[in-house]
Design brief:
Keywords: Carotenoid biosynthesis, Membrane, Oxidoreductase, Transmembrane, Transmembrane helix
Shape: globular
Order of helices and strands: HHHHHH
Radius of gyration: 18 Å
Protein name: Beta-carotene hydroxylase
Largest sheet: none
Number of helices: 6
Number of domains: 1
GO biological process, one term: xanthophyll biosynthetic process
Strand content: under 5%
Helix content: 55-70%
Organism: Aquisalinus flavus
Structural class: mainly alpha
Number of strands: 0
Distance between the termini: 63 Å
Pfam family, one: FA_hydroxylase
């Protein structure tokens, strides 16, 4: 029974991380930590690494701490730390490998993959700190909705 609860805690953590990633992306990366995230939106063609890559290390720290605590102090922290790590791996595969093609690969023509790629490209359509849409990654709204929202936001800023 305890193993089943720990598995559920792991799965719940992986799912909850999408919400945490959304909040971090919208309110930290497009907020006070824009100085690290900016070069992800405005990338030089010859640029291999980005300041934005530091977020992987920053977000790994709680996972490392929870895994250590889970092994040495309180076992219930372990599935949470592993869940955060699993989400980080999922994010790396989808964001860096599939969307940004940092590791070149041929992608299958799957509707879900096409949807997340298009949603992220719509997010990158805006090159500034403000005015972006689509801050989540594994769960995204329909691209048509994102385009309409982006268009409405631009229209609201345009003087009539």
């Amino acid at each position: 029974m305890i193993l089943a609860l720990k598995i559920l805690l792991f799965l719940g953590t992986v799912l909850a991380m999408e919400g945490g990633a959304w909040l971090a992306h919208k309110y930290l990366m497009h907020g006070p930590m824009w100085f690290l995230h900016k070069d992800h939106h405005v990338k030089r063609p010859d640029q291999v690494m980005e300041k934005n890559d530091w977020f992987a290390f920053l977000f790994a720290l709680p996972a490392i701490a929870l895994i250590w605590i889970g092994v040495h102090v309180w076992s219930w922290a372990l599935p949470v730390g592993i869940g955060i790590t699993a989400y980080g791996l999922i994010y790396f595969i989808f964001h860096d490998m599939i969307v940004h093609q940092r590791i070149r690969m041929k992608l299958p023509d799957w509707p879900y993959l096409n949807r997340i790629v298009e949603a992220h490209r719509i997010h990158h359509h805006v090159r500034t700190k403000e005015g972006c849409v689509s801050f989540g990654f594994v769960i995204t709204p329909k691209p048509s909705w994102l385009k309409a929202k982006l268009k409405a936001m631009k229209a609201a800023k345009t003087p009539q």
